[in-house]
Every structure is written in C-alpha cells, then in structure tokens.
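ok so i was messing around last nite and threw this chain in just to see what happens. nothing serious, just curious
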Amino acid sequence: MFENYKQVQDYIKKNEIKIVDFKEIDLAGRWHHLSIPAERFTEELLRKGIGFDGSSYGFTTVEKSDMTFIPDITSAFRDPIAEMPTLTMIGNIYKISEKLERFESDPRYIADKAEQYLLQTGISDTCLFGPEFEFYILDNIEFQIDAHNIAVRLDSAQAEWNSYDSQLDEYRRNLGYKVMWHKGYHADMPNDVSYGLRNRIVRILEDTGVPVKYHHHENGGPGQVEIEVNFATLREMGDRAQKLKYIVKNTAKKEGRTVTFMPKPYNGESGCGMHVHLQMFKNGEPLFYDEKGYSCLSQTALYAIGGILRHSPGLLAFTNPTTNSYKRLVPGFEAPVTICFATANRSSVIRIPGYAVHPEDKRFEFRSSDAASNPYLCYTAILMAAIDGIQNKIDPIAEHYGPYDRNMYYLTEEEKKYIKSLPKSLEEAADNMEQDHGFLTAGGVFPESLIMDQLKKIRTEAAEVNKIPHPIEFKKYFDI
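result:
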C-alpha cells in the first residue's frame, strides 16, 4: 500500500487514523497483534521495530525469547473490522544478535526465500497461486473436554435436522427451507441463507486488497460455502489468505454467526479443503501449456506434478498439519486419497481443470491441502516440491502416477498395484516428512530447525488427541 514513511503519515492524517495495528503470524498460522496510538508511529519504529516474546509464538525457548518485528508498510491496509479508524500492517520478524537479522523461520521470510530461489533456478520468474477456501458458517458451536464429559454440538439453522424444529429462536419460526445432507452444491436462495453475509464479506475483501473470483454454497448441507480468490504470487497470497480468514471470521461474528475452517467438523458430511491451483510464467509466457501434451500440459508442468506427487506423503505435514485433516482425507467425499493425477477428476490428488484451455490459464490443482495450515508454509512447500520435480525431471507417467481419467475409488486390482495412498494419519505424515524433506531445505528456503519444530509440534498434538477417549468408543465398547 505504501512505499515510504511519508506516504504512511499522509494517509494517517488524511483518514484520521487513530490506531496502528501490527499482525504477526505464528507457525500454526494464527495471527497475533499489537497496537499503538497513531501518534506513536514514527520513522524510528521502522528502523528499530518493536520487541516481543518469541517463545509465546513457539519460535524460541523462554531463556532466549526476545525478538523484534518491523512493520512491512507495503502490506498495510485499512482494518475493516476495528471500530476505531485503524491502519493495519503485517510485521516481519527479526532475531536479535549484534544487529537485527531476519528470523530464518518467519513464515513470510520463508515465502520470500522460496520466490528468490525460484528465480535463481532459472525455471520461472513468476509462480502464481490460486487457492479455494472452503468453510462452514454455523449458528452455534459448543464443545467440552472434561474428565466426565466429552461433547461437541454444532448447529446450523439451514441444516436438515432442523426441519422439524417448531421454533429456531425467539424471533424466527421454522419456514421449512433446508439444505439436505450432501445437497448444498450451488444451492440457491431461499435455501442459501448465508448469501447476504457472503456478499458483504466479499465486498470487504475486495476493498481490503483481496480480489475474489467467485463465491458459492458448497456441497455440505449444514452451511458449507466456498470463496475462491484471484491468483497472486506466493508471499502475496500468504498475506491474502490471512486477511481472508480474519475478515471472514470477524464479519460473521459481528452478524451473530460463527465460522470454522476445520477440515472435518461434521461426521458423515463433506469436509473443507483448500485446493491450490498453480501456474508458472517466464518473461510473460506460460510454462505449463503445450497443445501437444497430455491435457495440453507441457513437460515442465508434468515434471512439477511428478515432484509434488512423489513428495506428497511428507508434504502433508505442512499442507494438512492437524489430526482433523485426516478425517477429511477418506474415500467417498470428493477428497483425494490416492497419489495420482488426471484431468477434471476430483478423486485424484492433482486435478487438471478441464475448463482451463487457454495457454495463459493452463494450470493444475493440488487438492489435498486444507486451510488449517499456515498458508505461507503450505504454498512454499508445494512450490519446493514442484521445483524439485522440474529439476530432477520426475515424470509422473513413468512413475505410474497416471493419468487416471476415472474415479480413483474404483480401480482394477492390476492398477492398484501401482497406486500409493496419502498418509492416513498425522503421525504417518510426520514420519514421511522426517524421511523426505531435502527438497524443502534446497536453496536454504526451509531451515532444518523449522522442519524439526513442525514435526515435534504435530506429533505432540497427535499424541494429545490420541489419549482422549472418543464418543464412538463408548458406543462400541461400553458394554463389552
């Protein structure tokens, strides 16, 4: 938004900004923030930064926890949520030694390093990402995890199970418009009850620098929706993903609704993915198009696909980093479980959109990732796998990854011999990442220490979840 300090000050005065807010991201992908009165925003602050406790973000240990962030004024935006006029900026994280140095595990810095590494390889000068964000808009969420009570209750006024409620609340009677189980795809009004809210969200996103391709109701009956954004470069898309989640959650909350990006909130209903489309260009020319290739894909595109598919068992430690992620990655819900590629096939890990026929539109889509991931780390990991595939000429056809242009859940026994499946658990993804992460550390993009921290984090979370009794265990074993 800004190129220099004077532009920031002019904007603050002209728009009567009262607060300057700073957002910093942790490894899990959650924003933290710190705010100052607008009068305290000085040129010196842009040189020295603001100190904070890095251990609380999971970046460092307590005994060496002092870190600094310096606001990135190019990332500034007028906060559409804050009641008081607020200018928000994303902070770049620095470690403190003899001088300030960029912290090697700052997710934004990792994204920057990946884009620089791509340039150094000479493969491409522009890589664009286009994620699709699926999430549920709910009217109520309750959960409790105690020694004597383990319970979750989700509710959506439009859900099929509310068709016999005589009164949904003290103001609204039941008018009968419900979205049936698995029947929500592109549902229209009056069944699409969140349409107005989504329109307001999308207008705020546009005004905040997040261009939206389209939005619609998704397959999940009890409130699943999707917002697909326009393509952008890696670090910029990481910023946009964070802004989108911030705006979606807070706008819904202001209107008395709540949102979850959990991959699998409902038992037996469609899960929420974050399908990521990928394109590459060099000197303005598309690198993924060849009219003579399979589905008009170039050999470069096929090598990129080969790299992503080969590394996908470990890749999921960054693209699907929660125990809940693997409750979505099961057969029967349009979630990919087999490591393969195909055209227009939503059961494959990589899908080539059949409608993208023009050279400048040619791309492929990585379908397993979800929005519970840190977007900077997720998109960077996908790019690094693609680069490795191109550099090492990993041919997905020779590797028996496809193409399989039919439902992957119904392969012949002969075909199944060549097909590998994605990890079935977070622990399995962690084990694969531990054995196969050299493609991430290439060019110094991912620090080895960050990969080890991620593995420790997700294994700890998996162990925590695994030791808690599950309600279905009582159904199966209480009377054993």
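not much to say yet. The two ends are 64 Å apart (CA to CA).
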